[in-house]
Amino acid sequence: MNVMAMPSMVDDPRPLVVHVMHAFDIGGLENGVVNLINRMPHDSYRHTVLALTRITEFRARVRRDDVEFIALGKGPGHAIRLYPRLHALFRKLRPAIVHTRNLAALEVAMPAWSAGVPVRLHGEHGRDVGDLDGSNRKYQRVRRLYRPFVTHQVALSRDLARYLVERVGVPRAQVTQLYNGVDAALFAPAGQRAAIPGCPFAGAGLWIVGTVGRMQAVKDPQNLVRAFVRALAIEPALRARLRLVMVGDGALYGEVNAMLARAGVQDLAWLPGERDDVADVLRGLDAFVLPSLAEGVSNTILEAMACGLPVIATDVGGNGELVVEGRTGTLVPAADAEALARAIVAQARDPVAARAQGKAGRERVLSTFSLDAMVDGYRRLYDTLRARRSPQPFVDTAARVPLADR
């Protein structure tokens, strides 16, 4: 067991939340945990981050000095061999809440239950590449198996909430839907497109489209390359000003580069790998594209909208709950390079209309997806579940509204 940054918690009266996930590395889920920990009032809760596998330097983004980080170094497969260690760990830490996230961490609810943790909260943040539409029966069965050990469930989108109720069979009153929030002060428009440090594209006459995210199968970066190439074929004149920025690293990075080279457009694209200055990158774009095959609630869409960018996104998961078709951006079918290409061309042809969509997206973030609203929602949920200290459902005004009507 690898334990890092262990402050003294002796006689600390604040209740402890243990945030459990597969790994604590760069990603939307992990970024949401960072925002929650950093923004939650210090006097309300203390926090421990528990990763079943590894904790990377990403932990430096947690700005509080009272957070404990624990990595268990789990290998592939089921974590049943870790159950005795997890049981002992929870007995030692005595958390008020164990908050697991996504299927890979759900099984931790069982040792948390056996150790007497009063609240076991599970969050569904997005879809896996092996279950893009939620139809995987094995994954449904696994969620049903662990459901008795979970006090309450939280879904980041209405789509995921419906999945828990309609396919997994979680009682409707035991599901709360809470959107991610975005730091609208950090992710703010630049006024004019700003130069991205290190990027070769900065001319005022260019139209720069970009994306930020891991280069893995579920994000489908290859389809963005195909769409970019197709956009240049639809309107060859765009070759003089259309540019592509793809920020992120991952297993498909080499393949994406090779696709650009084979298409003869490598000089029109910039792939800098992983970056930690995402806000500056977004302020250097004219439009944001998310070509994912599946999503929960995309942090990068919210960040792009906060930066005043028009968004083109695949109509999967919670994307349609963020992007208002024709007002803040465009939704296209997943894995449809032709539709994605035509959406890119349409924005490049009419930059005035595209920028108006970006402005509307910024206004939507400020009104609906604030970071303060997210943090307040989780704090109220934690408070209510703790007050009950039993597997009775938490019900708020959102939970009372039928999912189909929200």
Description:
The protein is an alpha/beta fold and 406 residues long. The protein contains 15 helices and 14 strands. β12, α10 and β13 form a beta-alpha-beta unit.
Attribute tags:
single chain, 406 residues, alpha/beta, eight-stranded mixed beta sheet, six-stranded parallel beta sheet, 15 helices, elongated
Topology, please?
Blueprint: E1 2-4, E2 16-21, H1 28-39, E3 46-51, E4 68-71, H2 83-93, E5 97-101, H3 103-106, H4 109-114, E6 119-124, H5 137-146, E7 152-155, H6 158-168, E8 175-177, E9 207-212, H7 221-234, E10 242-247, H8 253-262, E11 269-273, H9 278-283, E12 287-290, H10 299-306, E13 311-314, H11 319-322, E14 329-332, H12 337-349, H13 351-368, H14 371-388, H15 397-400
Parallel strand pairs: 2-3, 2-5, 3-4, 5-6, 6-7, 7-8, 9-10, 9-12, 10-11, 12-13, 13-14
Antiparallel strand pairs: 1-4
